[in-house]
Write a structure and sequence with these properties.
The structure holds two protein chains of two kinds. By secondary structure, chain A is α+β, with helices and mostly antiparallel strands. Chain A folds into five domains: 2-66, no CATH class; 79-175, Penicillin-binding protein 1b domain (Penicillin-binding protein 1b fold, 2-Layer Sandwich); 177-377, Biosynthetic peptidoglycan transglycosylase-like (Penicillin binding protein transpeptidase fold, Orthogonal Bundle); 424-713, Beta-lactamase (3-Layer(aba) Sandwich); 730-744 and 758-779, no CATH class. In chain A, the strands form eleven sheets. Chain A has a five-stranded mixed beta sheet. In chain A, strands 3-4-5-8-9 form a five-stranded mixed beta sheet, with helices on one face. Chain B contains eight helices and no strands. The two termini of chain B are 25 Å apart. Chain B is mainly alpha-helical. The longest helix of chain B is centred in the C-terminal third of the chain and has 17 residues, at 122-138. Classes of the chains: A alpha+beta, B mainly alpha.
Chain lengths: 779, 156
């Protein structure tokens, strides 16, 4: 108890003494030990935390830089223009192609890749290097002459030696990017012009090659300037800091973010050399917005604003891009051109002050306009891109297309596409009879390869909405007739072009017990008509009779042989085209006609390369002949007659070349079709309303007008009939279908598969023995 | 355009052809390797001539075929055919490549396409029929081989 009391007292005393100060040193010492220990622990903890944190930051940096820093959208290219002596191309078309490729026109022989000099019908061109599927194509300096729409001279610009073939770089069409996302074209630093590199570094971070990630002097200078101005008017961020901020951090202006930025900048500089940092910065920087697409990096910005690679930019154009780094929206040449120009001029002025260019040069460049390309050039070919996506869908995930940076080489011919767009946009408005929402689709194909040359999916070709080339499944009307007659003519013992068909009233009961009674468009009956005439004039009743005679199975089989996988419904009305098809499907069928029976599946992509230009996949030319060559030749002969004597006879007056084709009109004039071909192009045109109301247009009064307009501008060669060995021509009396003679009344020359020729003679063919002898010896 | 022939001329022609056919001998040997070996030379000698651009691409293609770079050779040939779609030796080379790749169905189609535009280039047509024969042989299409042999005989 006493002990306790004593202890309590002692405690009390300790307390008291403490207050009096007698025991204070002892307590302070103990507290200091405690504080020192805590401090040490705290310091240790802080150190560990800092190390962990810095390691984590370092890990983030390395993780990002060791893999692919960015996902890249696929880049889609048109076909490359190939030039050789004898190629058909007009001066205007070549100029359009060069404009499409954004080649610069010069007043002197071109010294820079991607430029040309043009006078009269002569061109001096310096083409660009490009990597294709089959290897690198080196740019060349060459001269070419065009006379009357044909290349008549092609030779080296300096040695004057003749050249056999020049392949241009292909025009960039578009990228396939996510709905909301970043787009960029990766640049290699070694390909960046030294002037641009210097201008950028001088403008953004003059001591880039001297500091270690952060620039104390720049920060101090910025702070001073900001204090003086009373606001944040200057930044002291280095290129490294900006890159770190863009890649890893939020755009807020907190102290914590600044600390992180500085730390990561230091780490970045420790881990990577200056060139890697600068190259990454050049590819990362945000430089504008194209609707939902963000323009990143100088590579894409150069293409987006000027339509050409960075290497080909003039100093003023480089200055504009460098100026935009400070604020892509604020200094946008599209939305704020005046401000962008002022900023550009400031960059030029600074460049002059630092000796990169002379003062005089700067003054001259400051007078130049911004020269940003029009928006029209950037909104390209939505219907064609749809085709590309559908073809690639078989082999690539949609995500891969948007992120793997694939290089896609397509079959699009910008010259044909331009002509197709012009044909649609200038013709369709004048054809609208029941409202101005008449719609159109057009597909142009190379007959011998099935390569899609052009696609228009809307009466406003640049509108990227409902794509009627692929998705508008409409009744094809009389476009089915060549298929029906082909099915019949494959049986030469039963049908020839001279077979008499009955064009009289026809009543048929369908499988659904409904009576079907077809009529001709002119509501009259024509009695007995020869098969070729029935097709030429597109009479309905003879076609129905033939279709019913050969049967649905034969029609489907013939469609298959022509490359179609459509299965029509089992109604008699399919013989008159009551079957829904898209323009794409129709083009697939008519391609087989245009290629004399050799079907090539339609394709819009030739090859795909990976982001480094290494070949991934090629879509090879394919042909497959299932259908009889002789029967195809007979039908094609009549399809040519359609354009000279039949429902499309107007074409003979409108075109300078021979063509073959067929009109198509569905019930109540809801759909207007034309499918036809020259030696070089097959095109299918559809017109109609999306809600399927009558258009008031037949095939010839609607779609054929657009088709004709297209072929008036294409530099195509005439369609020429190639008769197979088992087919030859005979003169026939067009009334009776019997053999006749050249010069006889109603005589018409028609092809026949050997052994199927008529064996009876018309009255005119019964000639005197003298005439007979004359005929023999005249050959 | 094919001119109409008189009955007398027709009769004379038939008599001549019958005489010619009677002198034909057994079908030529046409093993796969032999056919491929003779292909390039025949194609070079082919009477079908094209513009220098096409010829240049064909030379490159031949060099690539010799080097067994068939994909790239095919690409060169396709470029040539875009310039000149009816250049029969081009289609014939595609048939040859398909045979080398053991793709007989494609070889047959390409050879047929070549024949369709070969005009009167008899040697080329014979070569194509040899390709078709070899392809059919690998498909065990006995009837098809016989038909190809008959065509080769006819062309000789």
């Amino acid at each position: 108890m006493n002990k306790n009391k004593t202890a309590r007292k002692a405690g009390k005393n300790r307390s008291t003494t403490s207050r009096t100060g007698r025991r204070k040193p002892r307590r302070n010492r103990s507290k200091r030990v405690f504080n020192n220990r805590n401090l040490a622990i705290l310091l240790l903890l802080s150190l560990v935390t800092s190390i962990v944190y810095v390691s984590w930051l370092d890990f983030r940096l390395l993780d990002r830089f060791s893999g692919r820093i960015w996902t890249l959208p696929a880049r889609v290219y048109a076909r490359p223009l190939e030039i050789f002596e004898g190629r058909q191309i007009s001066t205007e078309q070549l100029l359009r192609e060069l404009d499409n490729l954004n080649y610069s026109r010069t007043d002197q022989p071109p010294t820079q890749a991607g430029s040309y000099h043009h006078w009269n019908n002569h061109f001096e061109i310096r083409s660009r290097d490009f990597r294709f599927w089959d290897g690198d194509e080196k740019g060349r300096a060459f001269r070419l002459d065009i006379n009357a729409g044909v290349v008549t001279g092609l030779y080296d610009l300096y040695t004057r030696k003749p050249l056999t073939l020049i392949r241009f770089d292909p025009a960039y069409i578009t990228g396939i990017f996510p709905a909301h996302g970043e787009d960029r074209m990766l640049l290699k630093l070694k390909n960046v012009p030294q002037n641009f590199r210097t201008m950028l570094v001088m403008t953004e971070d003059r001591r880039f090659y001297e500091h270690f990630g952060i620039d104390i002097r720049a920060i101090a200078r910025a702070m001073l300037a900001n204090i003086r101005a009373g606001a944040a008017v200057q930044g002291g961020s280095t290129i490294t800091q900006q890159l770190v901020k863009n890649l890893f951090l939020s755009p807020d202006r907190s102290l914590w973010r600044k600390i992180n930025e500085a730390l990561m900048a230091l780490l970045l500089e420790l881990q990577f050399d200056k060139d890697t940092i600068l190259e990454t910065y050049m590819n990362e920087i945000y430089l504008g917005q194209d609707r939902e697409r963000a323009i990143h990096g100088f590579g894409l910005a150069s293409d987006y604003y000027f339509g050409k690679p960075l290497q080909e930019l003039d100093m003023d154009q480089m200055a504009m891009l460098v100026g935009m780094v400070k604020g892509a929206s604020f200094y946008s040449p599209v939305n704020n051109p005046e401000r962008a120009k002022q900023r550009r001029n400031l960059v030029l002025q600074t460049s002059a002050e630092l000796g990169l260019i002379s003062a005089a040069q700067s003054a001259r460049l400051q007078q130049k306009p911004l020269q940003v390309i029009s928006r029209r050039k950037r909104e390209r070919y939505p219907a064609f891109i749809d085709l590309v996506k559908r073809q690639l869908k078989r082999d690539y995930d949609a995500d891969d297309l948007k992120s793997e940076g694939l290089l896609i080489f397509t079959t699009l011919d910008p010259l044909v596409q331009h002509a197709a767009e012009e044909a649609v946009s200038t013709t369709v408005p004048g054809l609208s009879r029941y409202g101005n929402d008449l719609q159109a689709a057009l597909l142009a194909v190379a007959p011998d390869s099935g390569e899609v040359l052009a696609a228009v999916g809307d009466s406003t070709p640049a509108f990227a909405g409902y794509d009627r080339v692929l998705d508008a499944h409409r009744q094809i009307g009389s476009l089915i007739k060549p298929v029906i007659y082909l099915g019949a003519l494959k049986q030469p013992d039963r049908y020839t072009l001279a077979t008499l068909l009955s064009d009289t009233r026809l009543r048929v009961m369908g499988a659904d017990k409904k009576i079907w009674q077809p009529e001709n468009y002119d509501r009259t009956f024509h009695g007995d008509v020869l098969l070729y005439r029935a097709l030429e004039k597109s009479y309905n009743i003879p076609a129905a009779r033939v279709g019913l005679d050969i049967g649905l199975a034969e029609i489907i089989a013939t469609l298959r042989e022509l490359g179609s996988d459509t299965t029509p419904p089992p109604y008699p009305s399919i013989t008159l085209g009551a079957v829904d098809m898209s323009p794409f499907e129709v083009a697939g069928i008519y391609q087989s006609f245009a290629a004399n029976g050799f079907h090539s599946p339609l394709r819009s992509v030739r090859a795909v390369l990976d982001r480094n230009g290494e070949p991934l996949r090629r879509y090879a030319l394919d042909v497959n002949r299932q259908v009889d060559a002789g029967a195809i030749a007979l039908v094609n002969h009549v399809l040519h007659r359609v354009t000279t004597e039949g429902t499309a006879a107007r074409l003979a007056d409108e075109l300078d070349i021979d063509v073959a084709g067929k009109t198509g009109t569905s019930d109540d004039l809801r759909d207007s079709w034309f499918a036809g071909f020259s030696a070089d192009t097959l095109a299918v045109v559809w017109l109609g309303y999306d809600d399927n109301r009558p258009s008031g247009l037949t095939g010839s009064s609607g779609a054929m007008r657009v088709w004709s307009k297209l072929f008036q501008t294409l530099p195509d060669r005439s369609w020429r009939q190639a008769l197979p060995e088992n087919v030859s021509l005979r003169w026939i009396d067009s009334q009776s279908g019997r053999l006749s003679r050249q010069g006889c009344e109603n005589a018409v020359e028609l092809p026949f598969i050997h052994g199927s020729e008529p064996d009876e003679y018309s009255d005119c063919n019964q000639t005197s023995p003298i005439d007979w002898l004359k005929h023999i010896f005249s050959g | 355009m094919i001119r109409t022939t008189s009955p007398l001329a027709c009769t004379s022609f038939c008599v001549f052809m019958l005489a010619a056919c009677s002198s034909l001998e057994t079908p030529p040997e046409a093993g796969g390797q032999d056919t491929l070996a003779m292909a390039t030379q025949t194609l070079r000698d082919s009477r079908v001539r094209a513009n220098p651009a096409v010829e240049g691409l064909m030379q490159q293609a031949d060099a690539l075929i010799a080097n067994d770079s068939l994909d790239q050779a095919e690409e060169k040939i396709e470029r040539a055919l875009r310039i000149s779609p009816d250049y029969a030796p081009g289609w014939s080379r595609l048939s040859r490549i398909a045979l080398s790749r053991n793709d007989p169905a494609r070889a047959i189609q390409m050879a047929k396409r070549s024949n369709a535009c070969a005009g009167d280039a008899v040697e080329l047509k014979m070569l194509n029929w040899r390709f078709i024969r070899d392809a059919r042989l690998s498909l065990n299409d006995v009837e098809g081989v016989e038909q190809a042999d008959a065509e080769i005989r006819r062309l000789q």
